[in-house]
Amino acid sequence: QVQLVESGGALVQPGGSLRLSCAPSGFTLDDYAIGWFRQAPGKEREGVSCISSSDGSTVYADSVKGRFTISRDNAKNTVYLQMNSLKPEDTAVYYCAASRYFLGSAFFGSSWYFDYWGQGTQVTVSS
């Protein structure tokens, strides 16, 4: 079965850090761009960050620039989202998704080109 599995979500205090992981089942990530999305209660899903498969190019939402870092370790077949200086507004279910295409900043306008999705991991930032 082809799917993605996210892990690393937790309850953390404001200012804290978490690292989310995204690993595939049934395929390898080498040829795929990986995007991280999030959806907070009552809000639409939004793109957070994306990393290309080829040269490691990345894009970030303005709301997370300077705080979040996306990276990939193809040897471990895993993509990470390091989240620092977390804020209550970062609270959401975080999803990773895989696509054959990296469209740069167009990532933030549409997600139709992502083929595989994970089930999500909950991140809660609260004191």
Question: How does this model look, in words?
Answer:
The chain has 127 residues and is mainly β. 0% of the residues lie in helices and 46% in strands. Strands 2, 4, 5, 6, 9, 10 and 11 form a 7-stranded mixed sheet that branches. Strands 1-3-8-7 form a 4-stranded antiparallel sheet, with no helix packed on it. The chain is globular, with a radius of gyration of 13 Å.
| Mean pLDDT level | 95
Q: H/E order of the elements?
A: EEEEEEEEEEE
Strands, total number: 11
Largest sheet: 7 strands, mixed
Q: Helicity, in percent? A: under 10%
Helix/strand/pairing category: mainly beta
Radius of gyration: 13 Å
Count of helical segments? 0
Runs in which pLDDT lies below 50 for 5 or more consecutive residues are none
Distance between the termini: 39 Å
Instruction: Please state the overall shape, judged from the principal axes of the Cα atoms.
Output: globular
Strand-residue proportion: over 45%
